[in-house]
């Protein structure tokens, strides 16, 4: 067992953990929120008061144990407050992605049976209006921000209560009535493979996962976590509830575009992210190096080589020779310390999940003294069930099981998972439950992998995403895509070639890098569409792809490509909220461009 802070909470329900946290440290900081240009702490006693008010108002609107309450909002303190109030009262939280279409929203509302919903602004309210019109329903809505002229309760007034003493008694009674096997949340998958399915998650699923993660990592009470992931996604949701059980503070980024600035301001010690953020940081660093002098580039690449050698030796549990230690100390002073300073200077570990992280990027950050602990899990396992350890990790893998988690590989290579974090099944979908959840407790992940000689799990691809070429070769597209995305000029990539003679790719441009390149060559940086069609930029991207091809077998290398000027995002429907490719949507939108490559 590893050291954790003395404020560790051990509870079988989320509400029970919340009450324990407040009693143990009402004056301790719970959040950091930016106000008037500066991050200010919010104490647990203030959080408790707001949660009581939300709980009281929900009860006044007839929401009791077992009722479904949806939240359709961006990451914010209010999301967390509402979630805690719902869960503590025994109701069931239904997260809905803010990027969801009215059709998906209507499906989730209908399937879950939600009777109350929270939104954060007029945009989400209008989606709910459209969904309710489609369903012929009219349940109450509360909004984080006032929406004049609409029938929505204002959250600030929703938090008010008349008799706090009586509310506290009712709240504690409600918390005690919740049992570990009660449903806490129904989380709908992001729909990469079709209509979203509702994953049933119990209080014990949550608490066992949270405690397993906390015991796996050396948190101390002075730690601070910067959060910006969507709480609608299971990875962000676990992150949002972790402070209750380990006592660390959580700082809220203003939005996804201000993360780099907020890191400098808050100086967190812990960072949890999906690979796309690390890819962007890496691309930005490499872009800055490329624009530097020849001397600075030479020093950087020398230091990078030293850092990688040290990182790889640590990954393989090999000794670091004294001469290499001296070189690393020099590299750290000249290069790595400056990179760490760009991330606030206090980061002691970071975590990556939700999608595969390129090994090259992981090695780079470890070499800089920034540990990225890659992990693996799905909504059905409540996120992390396999994680690399701060002192026992291996590049190219996602780690080993935590808590009572188990993993094994089926005869066809599929990864099977079991443990107290694993969902009991899909809501109102017995056929899908039977197909994915085996009678002996194993969950069929849909991912392909292998377990190495040290017991580490390596993901090779998704079972349903393997490309099978006309020549019969099985190819993992994510391997190709991760290598191509190492280019500072390429924001995203999708490999394609099922039943075809060779692999092709769609690539999107990194807007900032593309504009800098255009300016340096005397071209207009205002029209990315025209830039994407230019021969010079196509030649540049071709060289970048050729670098990736050197790391690939001939049959899996990219033979042709098409540049897409518009970057892919959840907003334009090309990515899931956790920034994974929606392959079917992308193929449908760019089928003519793909066909032209053959």
Short description:
The chain is α/β, with parallel strands linked by helices and 598 residues long.
E-strand count:
26
Q: How many helices? A: 21
Structural class: alpha/beta
Q: Gap between N and C termini, in Å?
A: 56 Å
What average pLDDT do the residues reach? 90
Strand content: 15-25%
Which geometry do the CA atoms define? globular
Which stretches of 5+ consecutive residues score pLDDT under 50? 1-5
Radius of gyration based on Cα positions: 24 Å
Largest sheet: 9 strands, mixed
Strand order of the largest sheet: 2-1-11-10-12-13-14-15-16
Percent helix: 40-55%
How would you sum up this structure, described in words?
By secondary structure, the protein is an alpha/beta fold. The protein contains 21 helices and 26 strands. Strand 17 and strand 18 form a beta hairpin. Helix 1 crosses helix 3 (77-88), helix 12 crosses helix 13 (322-342) and helix 12 (294-315) crosses helix 14. The longest helix has 22 residues, at 294-315. The protein is globular. 49% of the residues are buried. Mean pLDDT is 90; it is low at 1-5.
Features:
21 helices; 598 residues; 26 strands; alpha/beta; nine-stranded mixed sheet
Write the layout of secondary structure elements.
Elements: H1 14-25, E1 29-35, E2 38-43, H2 44-60, E3 68-72, H3 77-88, E4 92-95, H4 102-112, E5 116-119, H5 122-135, E6 141-143, E7 153-154, H6 155-158, H7 164-177, E8 183-188, E9 198-202, H8 203-216, E10 224-227, H9 234-246, E11 249-252, H10 259-266, E12 270-273, H11 275-290, H12 294-315, H13 322-342, E13 349-352, H14 359-367, E14 372-378, E15 383-387, E16 400-401, E17 406-409, E18 414-418, E19 425-426, H15 430-436, E20 443-451, E21 457-462, E22 467-468, E23 474-475, H16 477-484, E24 490-496, E25 503-509, H17 511-520, H18 528-533, H19 535-549, E26 558-564, H20 583-589, H21 591-596
Parallel strand pairs: 1-11, 3-4, 3-5, 5-6, 6-7, 10-11, 10-12, 12-13, 13-14, 25-26
Antiparallel strand pairs: 1-2, 8-9, 9-19, 14-15, 15-16, 17-18, 18-20, 20-21, 22-23, 24-25
Helix pairs in contact: 1-3, 2-3, 2-7, 4-5, 8-9, 12-13, 12-14
């Amino acid at each position: 067992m590893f050291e954790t802070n003395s404020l560790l909470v051990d509870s079988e329900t989320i509400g029970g953990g919340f009450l324990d946290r407040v009693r143990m440290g009402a004056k301790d900081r719970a959040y950091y929120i930016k106000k008037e240009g500066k991050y200010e702490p919010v104490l647990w006693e203030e959080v408790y008061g707001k949660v009581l008010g939300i709980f009281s108002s929900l009860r006044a609107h007839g929401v009791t144990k077992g009722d479904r309450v949806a939240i359709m909002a961006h990451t914010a303190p209010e999301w967390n407050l509402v979630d805690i109030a719902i869960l503590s009262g025994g109701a069931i939280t239904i997260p809905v992605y803010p990027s969801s279409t009215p059709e998906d929203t209507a499906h989730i509302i209908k399937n879950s049976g939600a009777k109350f919903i929270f939104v954060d602004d007029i945009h989400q309210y209008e989606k709910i209006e459209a969904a309710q019109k489609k369903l012929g329903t009219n349940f109450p809505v509360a909004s984080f921000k006032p929406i004049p002229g609409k029938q929505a309760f204002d959250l600030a007034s929703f938090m008010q209560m008349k008799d706090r003493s009586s509310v506290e008694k009712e709240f504690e009674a409600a918390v005690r009535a919740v049992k570990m096997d009660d449903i806490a949340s129904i989380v709908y998958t992001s729909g990469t493979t079709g209509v979203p399915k509702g994953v049933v998650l119990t209080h014990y699923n949550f608490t066992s996962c949270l405690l397993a993660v906390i015991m796996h990592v050396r948190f101390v009470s002075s730690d601070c976590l910067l959060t910006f992931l969507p709480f609608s996604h299971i990875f962000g949701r676990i992150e949002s509830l972790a402070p209750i059980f380990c006592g660390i503070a959580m700082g809220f980024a203003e939005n996804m575009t201000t993360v780099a600035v907020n890191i400098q301001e808050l100086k967190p010690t812990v960072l949890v992210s999906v690979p796309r953020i690390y890819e962007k940081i890496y691309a930005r660093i490499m872009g800055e190096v490329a624009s530097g002098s020849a001397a600075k580039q030479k020093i950087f690449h020398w230091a990078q080589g030293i850092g990688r050698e040290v990182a790889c030796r640590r990954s393989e549990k090999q000794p670091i020779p004294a001469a290499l230690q001296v070189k690393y100390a020099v590299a750290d002073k000249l290069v790595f310390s400056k990179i760490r300073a760009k991330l606030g200077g206090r980061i002691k570990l970071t975590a990556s999940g939700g999608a595969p992280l390129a090994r090259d990027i992981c090695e780079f950050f470890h070499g800089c003294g920034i540990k990225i602990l890659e992990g693996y899990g799905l909504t059905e396992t409540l996120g992390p069930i396999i994680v690399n350890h701060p002192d026992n990790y291996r590049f190219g893998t996602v780690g080993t099981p935590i808590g009572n988690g188990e993993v094994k590989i089926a005869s066809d290579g599929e990864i099977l998972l079991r443990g107290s974090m694993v969902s009991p099944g899909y809501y109102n979908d017995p056929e899908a439950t039977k197909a994915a959840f085996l009678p002996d407790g194993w969950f069929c992940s849909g991912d392909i992998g292998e377990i190495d000689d040290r017991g580490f799990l390596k993901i090779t691809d998704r079972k349903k995403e393997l490309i099978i070429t006309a020549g019969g070769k099985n190819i993992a597209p994510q391997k190709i895509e991760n290598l191509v995305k190492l280019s500072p000029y390429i924001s995203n990539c999708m490999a394609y070639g099922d039943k075809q003679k060779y692999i092709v790719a769609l690539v999107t441009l990194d807007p900032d890098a593309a504009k800098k390149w255009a300016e340096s060559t005397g071209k207009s940086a205002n029209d990315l569409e025209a830039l994407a069609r230019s021969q010079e930029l196509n030649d540049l991207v071709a060289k970048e792809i050729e670098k990736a091809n050197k790391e690939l077998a001939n049959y899996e290398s990219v033979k042709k490509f098409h540049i897409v000027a518009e970057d892919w995002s959840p907003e334009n429907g090309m990515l899931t909220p956790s920034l994974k490719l929606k392959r079917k949507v992308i193929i449908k939108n760019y089928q003519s461009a793909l066909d032209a490559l053959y």
